[in-house]
Amino acid sequence: MPQLEFFFDFSSPFAYLAGMQVEGVARRTGATLVLRPLLLGALFREVGQVDVPIGAMSEVKRQYTLRDLGRWARWWGVPFRWPEAFPLRTVLPLRVFLLDPTPARMRSFFHATWGEGRDVGDPGVLRSLGVSEAELAQAPGRREELVAATRLAVEAGVFGVPSFRVDGGPLIWGQDRLDQVERACRGEPIEG
Question: Residue 177: what are its φ and ψ, rounded to 5°?
């Protein structure tokens, strides 16, 4: 049974698109899904990337990327709405997620952010998604766990999200590479 690692942050619309599909890939291939949340801003600083890549794009590339996100959302059959509070602050939802790191919670946080355009960094939004006061109070205690998770991603060679790794093999980056992820889970080689 292959192990499928999914590296993500709720701040990425591309990770949202992948996050809404990755369970299906695992189910179809019999893979064990391992969720690997990380703090994307910290990862970007570590690897020398700007904090908000879409903000550094030329206007023509930014407009294309926004249209492409909409096309991919339609392709995958998921709603897509750009959040008003962008760039997103995801430290709190990531720490809360670490308290209950389930696919259902991941989908819920992603859908609220990119399907509904809500600010998942707002404690009120998290409460509306079923996060308890106790979880919100415990979240600051997950700081070191989030730092360690981000460090693990850097050590795995992750430079952006979504990223995938099957059985510790080569990194696969991008929601548009889910076909390669699925092939890797089936044991097919993905590199020449």
Answer: -110, 15
Share of the chain above pLDDT 90, in %: 84
| Alpha-carbon gap, residue 121 to 123, rounded angstroms | 6
Residues in the chain: 192
Confidence (pTM):
0.93
pLDDT tens sequence across 76-133: 999 999 998 988 999 999 999 999 999 999 999 999 999 999 999 999 999 999 999 9
pLDDT of residue 19: 98
Packing angle, helices 143-155 and 91-99, rounded to 10: 100
Return the bridge partners of 34, or none: 5
Give me the sign of the Cα torsion angle 65, 69, 75, 76. Answer: positive
End-to-end CA distance of the chain: 23
CB 16 within 8 A of CB 176: no
Residue boundaries of the structural domains of the chain: 30-161
At 67, list the tokens.
């249209």
Nearest to residue 175, comparing CAs of 94, 90, 68?
Answer: 68
Assign a CATH topology to domain 30-161: Glutaredoxin (3.40.30)
